[in-house]
Design goal:
By secondary structure, this protein is an alpha/beta fold. The chain folds into 4 domains: 103 residues, Up-down Bundle (Methane Monooxygenase Hydroxylase, Chain G, domain 1); 182 residues, polyphosphate kinase like; 162 residues, Endonuclease Chain A (Endonuclease, Chain A, 2-Layer Sandwich); 177 residues, 2-Layer Sandwich (Endonuclease, Chain A), CATH 3.30.870.10. Helices cover 36% and strands 21% of the residues. The chain has 19 helices and 27 strands. The strands form 5 sheets. Strands 14, 19, 20, 21, 22, 24, 25, 26 and 27 form a 9-stranded mixed sheet that branches. Helix 11 runs parallel beside helix 12 and helix 15 runs parallel beside helix 16. The two termini are 24 Å apart.
Length: 706
């Protein structure tokens, strides 16, 4: 294959990773704005947007600020100018924050009111409501408060990460002769957790329902809290701290100790953003800056209320249409509801599609393996697990029953390090062999391998490969694909990958699995090159990718090269998409869209035309440099023809969505005139619901195909 074309250089036309991610969060905000989304679900999309942006500041903005502080010569070696990038990012964040405020104030609050739900502030309370709120403050809230004075006796004020604080500005003493200072500034943590939530439900009045922020309950009680002052102004702030671990750059020392140190540093990391109420008196803001050491660079003008992620806990109302309709997990068409899963897997491959189908099949398989006297060994990779993990409990049970349990625990799963440390300690105490990979290598693949002695005394292995984590909680929210198989072509190579995880000095030679960091990039390059050669010969050539992110410059250059040769490339990208599609000469044969809907699109699927013998891979890996070069990722082929058709059909539903799909510019892709709109996630549930037991013949009509 010829070398990469000129646009593989540093002049490669791409959208920056951070601006692309902000485009994704804008799509989340679009869901909050969408009138066809149930009302209380729209509030949850605001919460998701807010939570996403918090993490963005903690990780990406903090990283950019650290890059800006590098020496000029060092900065010059970076692909992008961090100072210019930071300026663009903050401008876009400001625009989105303004749009967020308009969405909340001018769309969602009026819509709540129309449905007789009123989110009041303290100034809007009736006299009766104010009296009720004052009593509630005295009985339920006052004892939870512990304000501190920002005076000369305080040398430094430490603010917790991602925590709302209320600042009190006290002035005009009622008795000036009493020796009370004319002005005081106090600060206290908003006691959301100890109170049991951010919102207070007031008594109904007929069909009218009323809700109050906890912040405003405290504002009502502020005068009683500080009776010596005539005027008490209450405003909110919130700090986000730098959460970037940078652990991947470290290559020596004890990994667990590094992780524990990083966790402690995270709690005290450098400020990345201080959100403040624009109505806050300048005296209050000045005192906070002075006591915390926060500079104007970290200040971001917010609103009256912060931590909109607390809207996940907004009071529930049972009105019809307020929430998504129930979508109970579907029974699997070929896996038994009761009885042995191992026996069913021994007969044939099975695909699982959470959350449309229940993740319980995975935990059932683990529980069955734990007690099956013929199962001798269980190996699994754990990246993120649930807080009360049924998966880990099954592994502990397996160890108790004398199985050889090998667990590869990823300690560098950002924001889950503490949980993973907890479960790894439990597993080690139970006798499991717990493997932590080297600091420079992150295990993101999702694999389970069981070894069993069969009735004829032969040894057989059973595997489960997945795009999603072994996490029963997120399995209800994330769309993923999982493959149960006893196909020796796949199980033998899964065993080789586990051997590699035990000892990276021996790189396995694999024919079926594409495994990073040693085989995924070369394998993908070869598949793209094959399509390029086909196109150059004038033959049909196409690539369809469904991923969370496309960021790696080398892979983008390969796709540009393929497009220039005539390969049709279709991208379904949920999040970061740095490739610029539809450009003359180098990407005119590339299209891109993404879906944001009820469930988080999490599965990765790669399709290659391959001269009429279509190849379909399902994977844990996005097309990002970190996934291809610094992580253990697995892309597994769907070898069973009927299952390959199943994955392809579900992918085609995504490709033909005309309700929740947005193009590269975030414009909705609408159905052609006269055609019925199609919503992929709804169509997926309906299609899977209609699958008959043991019937795998896929009938596909009316869908655009490549």
């Amino acid at each position: 294959m010829s070398s990469l074309p000129h646009y593989a250089s540093t002049q490669l036309k791409t959208l920056s990773r951070d601006l692309s991610w902000l485009r994704f969060n804008a799509r989340v905000l679009q869901e909050a704005q969408c009138p066809t989304v149930p009302l209380l679900e729209r509030l949850k999309f605001l919460a998701i947007f807010s939570s996403n942006l918090d993490e963005f500041f903690k990780v990406r903005v903090a990283t950019l600020r650290r890059l800006v502080k590098l020496k000029k010569k060092t900065r010059a070696q970076l692909a992008d100018n961090p100072k210019r990038e930071l300026r663009k990012v903050l401008e876009e964040v400001g625009r989105q924050q303004e749009e967020f405020g308009v969405t909340f104030r001018e769309q969602l609050l009026p819509e709540l009111n129309r449905h007789h739900i009123h989110l009041l502030n303290e100034a809007e309370l009736s006299e009766t409501q104010r009296e009720w709120t004052a009593r509630y403050f005295e009985e339920k809230v006052r004892d939870l408060l512990s304000p501190v004075v920002l005076d000369d006796a305080m040398h430094h004020l430490f603010l917790k990460d991602q925590t709302v604080y209320l600042a009190f500005y006290l002035r005009e003493p009622r008795n000036p002769k009493a020796g009370i200072e004319p002005e005081r500034v106090l600060l206290m943590e908003l006691p959301t957790k100890r109170h049991g939530g951010r919102f207070v439900r007031l008594p109904d009045e007929g069909e009218e329902r009323y809700v109050l922020f906890l912040d405003d309950v405290i504002r009502v009680g502020a005068a009683e809290l500080f009776p010596a002052y005539q005027r008490v102004e209450v405003n909110a702030i919130k700090l986000s701290r730098d959460a970037e671990l940078d652990i991947e750059e470290e290559v020596s020392g004890d990994l667990m100790e590094k992780i524990r140190n990083s966790l402690s540093k995270r709690a005290t990391g450098f400020p990345a953003r201080l959100l403040y109420d624009p109505q806050m008196p300048k005296e209050t803001l000045r005192a906070i800056k002075q006591k915390t050491g926060i500079t104007d660079e970290e200040l971001v003008e917010g609103s009256r209320y912060h931590n909109f992620r607390d809207f996940f806990g907004f009071p529930e109302f049972s009105d019809p249409g307020f929430n998504y309709p129930a979508r109970p997990a579907l029974p699997h068409p070929t896996l038994p509801r009761t009885g042995s899963l191992l026996a069913a897997i021994a007969q044939r491959d099975h695909l699982l599609h959470p959350p449309y189908q229940s993740f319980d099949y995975v935990t059932r398989l683990l529980r069955e393996a734990a007690t099956d006297p013929r199962v001798s060994a269980v190996s699994i990779t754990l990246y993120r697990v649930a807080s009360k993990s049924a998966v880990v409990k099954a592994l502990l049970k397996a160890a108790k029953h004398g199985k050889q349990v090998t667990v590869v625990v990823e300690l560098k799963a950002r924001f889950d390090e503490e949980s993973n440390l907890f479960w790894s300690d439990k597993l080690k105490r139970a006798g499991a062999n717990v493997i932590f990979t080297p600091p420079e290598l992150k295990v993101h693949s999702k694999m389970l391998l069981l070894t069993r002695r069969e009735a004829d005394e032969t040894t057989r292995q059973y595997a489960y490969f997945s795009t999603g984590n072994f996490n029963e909680s997120t399995s209800q929210l994330y769309t993923d694909h999982g493959l149960f198989t006893a196909d020796e072509r796949l199980t033998r190579e899964a065993a080789a990958v586990f051997e590699y995880l035990r000892d990276q000095s021996v790189v396995p030679k694999l024919e079926q699995l594409l495994v990073a960091p040693f085989g995924l990039r070369p394998g993908l390059n070869a598949l793209i090159d094959y399509e390029t050669k086909q196109a150059q010969k004038g033959k049909e050539a196409y690539i369809i990718l469904k991923v969370n992110s496309v960021e790696d410059r080398g892979m983008i250059a390969k796709l540009y090269h393929a497009s220039a040769a005539g390969v049709r490339v279709e991208l379904i990208v949920r999040g970061i998409g740095c490739l610029v599609p539809g450009q003359p000469d180098f990407s005119e044969n590339i299209t891109q869209h993404g879906l944001v809907d009820r469930f988080l699109e999490h599965s990765r699927v790669y399709v290659f035309g391959h001269g009429g013998e279509e190849k379909v891979y399902v994977s844990s890996a996005d097309w990002m440099t970190r996934n291809l070069d610094r992580r253990v990722e697995v892309a597994f082929p769907i070898l069973d023809e009927s299952l390959r058709a199943e994955v392809r059909h579900l992918l085609d539903l995504q490709r033909n969505d005309t309700v929740k799909a947005r193009d590269f510019e975030n414009s909705y892709i609408l159905a052609d005139a006269g055609k019925k709109p199609m919503q992929a996630q709804e169509a997926t549930y309906t299609w899977l619901k209609g699958l008959k037991r043991r019937q795998r013949k896929t009938e596909i009509t009316g869908l655009k195909r490549i």
